[in-house]
Amino acid sequence: MRARASGLAWTGCYLALVFVPLGILLVGDRPRGGGFWWDFSLALGYAGLSMMGVQFALTARFKRATAPFGIDIIYYFHRYLAIIALVLLLAHAGILSAKYPGAAGSFDLREAPATMIWGWLGLIAFMAVLVTSLGRRLLRIEYDTWRRIHVVLAVAGVAMAVLHVFGSGHFLTSPIKRGLWTLLGASWLGLVVWVRLIRPAQLLKYPFRVVEVRPERGRSWTLTLEPEADGSAALDYRPGQFVWLTLDGSPFAMREHPFSYASSPTRSGRLEFTIKELGDFTQRIGQTRPGTLAYVDGPYGAFCIDRWPSAPGFVFVAGGVGIAPIMSSLRALADRRDGRPLWLFYGNRTWEGVVFREELAELSARCDLHVVHVLGEPPPDWECERGWITREVMARHLPENRVDLECLICGPTPMIRLVERGLRDLDVPLRQIHSEIFDLA
Known about the structure:
Shape: elongated
Strand order of the largest sheet: 4-3-6-1-2-5
Low-confidence stretches: none
CATH topology of the largest domain: Four Helix Bundle (Hemerythrin (Met), subunit A)
Order of helices and strands: HHHHHHHHHEEEEEEEHEHEEHEHE
């Protein structure tokens, strides 16, 4: 209930941040209306810019604000709101161009007034943000390069849109309104300074070193880190959470990547991250050397068993290296000697690629853990589950009181959707199904 109330409060804050700038425009003297389409198009423009500005707050990693939802959900929210904001801005420009071509100015930037040039350039920057983000893989843009492009385009887009607003100034008819919108623009760009300069400067105080690089099954590696200074916040985490990890570089370099803790907070002093060779950065993860400098920004995330201390038991579903945050939870439960029943459905392509295969067997002996391996390409003598983690597979192994259990899912998006649908078909309430989104980019 506390998390739900907090979530509603922060949702209210978001709506206020979007609508208060519009309310400022209506205070005091207002210009004479130019007709419905004129006023409507301007409202769309101001609303779209407000939403774009607040996007910086959504990605500023404020732990209190993200805690009720999980930062993975916030990032997905950020993505879809950017699409909505761009649609509003395109509608703003389209209506003005169609209904009031004289006011919109020429599409030829050599002839258009300066304030219109800023507006068109800002719109182009926002469009480029969406195209490079949604089409990053299709365009084959490397992750770190994309992040730098993303920040530069977003900052440029907001800055040019604010210049456009002040240049046209239709509703900014008083010094107070102009001052308040100046503060808004400064606060939006100030969030970038916080994330890209102030926060990295804080991380410099708490460096880590890689002390072990351990090969695992399935082309995965476990990196073990120890802090060089006492008191690092990253050592104070809950099982299943994640961090942004920077390896062999400065935290200012924008080379950080999100990885879940595989270690348990019950085993203090060290952090472990199990990472599979998959993408631009991770395909070289096995080449990391002990002694490599690292910075850890975290913890974040709500994919944590400690959120449900009264749960009668847990169902875990993992695909591939999605086992990492679940291993953090299983290790913590075993170390705490938690007697609640646990079920793990673990999907992999082959038996040889099952990460933590031996340790899972050991954990089954230490706590009430039932492990169900599901293989896509099983060996000839395989007698367990095959194919996908479907409703039928889960129904064969879960108890009758499955509707009372908390279910945590981590893996590729198609697997998450299949499992969520299967659990709902088994009458598990939606409020008890919790998924960790695999890809934040």
